[in-house]
Amino acid sequence: MASPATYPRPDFFRQTLNWTSLNGAWDFIFDDADSGLSELWQHKGIPRETGTQIKREIMVPYAFQTPASGIGVHEAHEVLWYERTISDIRTADELAKGNRLVIRFGAVDYDCSVWVDGQFVGGHRGGHVPFDLDISDVFHDTNSKKTARLTIRVRDSPYDLTQPRGKQYWGPVPESIFYTPSSGIWQSVWLESLPAMRLGSSSEGTILRSDDIERGEMHSRVSVIGRRAASKCSVEIEARLGGTPVSKASAELPKDKEFASLIVDMKVPNADELRKKAPFDNAGSWHDRVALWRPGYPILYDLILRLYDATGSVVDEVQTTTGMRSLSWNTGDGTFRVNDRPFFQVLVLDQGYWLETGMTPPSPDALKDDIVMSMNMGFNGCRKHQKVEDPIFLYWADRLGYLVWGEIANAYEFSDDYVQRFNSEWTEVVKRDINHPSIVTWTPVNESWAYTSLKDNIEQRNHIRSLYYMTKTLDPSRPINDNCGWEHVLTDLTTYHDYSDSPQLAASCSTMEGILGKKAGHDMFTPPIRSGSILLDAGAQHKPGAPVICTECGGVNIAPAKDGSKGDRDWGYTTAADPKDLLKRLEKLIMAVVKGGHSCGVVYTQLADIEQEVNGLYSNDRREKVPAADVKAIVDSAKAHYYEHVLAK
């Protein structure tokens, strides 16, 4: 029987799931001449060699640039081919029921096409979001056809700056704040046997909105995939808390809809008893009879979603969770509120790279470990920077009570093609992650990346404005940080980046004029910038009373060894002499932000070293550079100062 601990999407889990991982050894070849399609590799199989390239073995899901892939070359290759044999995993009972065989991809960077036994079954463009393909019809002759050849062609341009790539450098060798590219399959691939009519995931339209803590209600939209025209079916949601039944709600799908809307009562009948029991012994985590999710103390409701056919039989059942919590950012007093209480966010910039595996975690546990390491240092969340992280990360963030700012990999040039690419992928990001209580802010754009003429180009400003409204339409329950740290166009939060050393940072954070004023550019291609806005568009300027958050600062590295053993791979914004000096600088930087009295949050750069950028609090192999307890003392002091002094003003 399947287990959420090993399944790649543990947040949407079927107890009776029949699935098999396709991670492991695949055949692989570079197609530098881009001749594979014309030579019909999809029909014949990938060749032993082509030009100067030979077929070799790659370990999926690691990008070919990483050591873990078994290839590990830092070379520019635009077209890649993968191939392996797959088997039909459906049992005789599942075949009799008409179950479908679906192949699932966590993420493939960037544009891929898929064939099974030479038959085209679909493709996807977008390197950071999942997609599924139904390959059932390839196994049409169940008496003889049990295996098939799976072939995948991937195109990932090393040079196209309109392609969303995040921190992946547009060349084979990284430099400055940019890292090694990560091409091809970089998240898990697996096969599933699924009911022909089944419950849809969040990506397919199931939304569980759990922010109405006053009424104690979860407003839900449950989608159904594969419904036959006008066939009668219904959905049910059962809520439990700590194994105790809370409530049920059900609804029949309208004949003209592929979804049903339900309101689930989340008020606990025996709340007084549960509040006396661990982990429900903190009265501050309840509102009336509703158990609340909050940072550091996450209470999750277990949910069972069921789909019934016309006979009343259960045809699909999914397990997931939700956390009842509300967010407020427009109260006019400059606070960011969780469950209507001001909350000081001390976050860490987390870019999710590992030494041997690049953007792919070396194991599912590594994602949980990064959260634990951050919390051990006192941070209550992260800004997941320029990366859409593996869903397992959010699974653990929900369970550990860890805040996450959702972001996406940006591009570097603006064009019509970029707009289409970005809109599609950003929509998929929001839909994939919308049901996680740990997600508290959406950040579509960072530092005007791709918007190089924002001040003078109305089309670029209009696109950012459209991203705000598109995101708000998809999810009105969270604030939007439209253009993190730089000139805002339309935003719920005023965010700023400042990598100055502590004296300069303290001076600029002491007044709103300093926060909104010009800052020195901090990377390889930026001019001096403003954290506020000099744009003429209505709504671009800071709104008095809106939350102000320093969403990047710090980035302190430690001076290299005197023997120069680290060479030139010691990049940081400022440099500490040793670990003790790093701690002193960390304290001064964070306190400079909070003592200024205008900011309700801070994001410290960064959690761990990445390649040549060695300004993490942990090394790239996750060893402490400074004691976690010492960092936690500093972070806790900053939180205390905010609650005791800033809020008292």
UniProtKB/TrEMBL annotation:
Record key words, sorted: Glycosidase, Hydrolase
SUPFAM superfamilies: (Trans)glycosidases (SSF51445), beta-Galactosidase/glucuronidase domain (SSF49303), Galactose-binding domain-like (SSF49785)
Domain Glycoside hydrolase family 2 catalytic positions: 418-505
Pfam family, one: Glyco_hydro_2_N
InterPro entries: Beta-gal/glucu_dom_sf, Galactose-bd-like_sf, GH, GH2_Domain-Containing, Glyco_hydro_2_cat, Glyco_hydro_2_N, Ig-like_fold, Ig-like_GH2
Domain Glycosyl hydrolases family 2 sugar binding: residue ranges: 21-176
Chain ranges of the Glycoside hydrolase family 2 immunoglobulin-like beta-sandwich domain: 288-325
UniProt family annotation: Belongs to the glycosyl hydrolase 2 family.
Protein name: Glycoside hydrolase family 2 protein
Source organism of the structure: Paecilomyces lecythidis
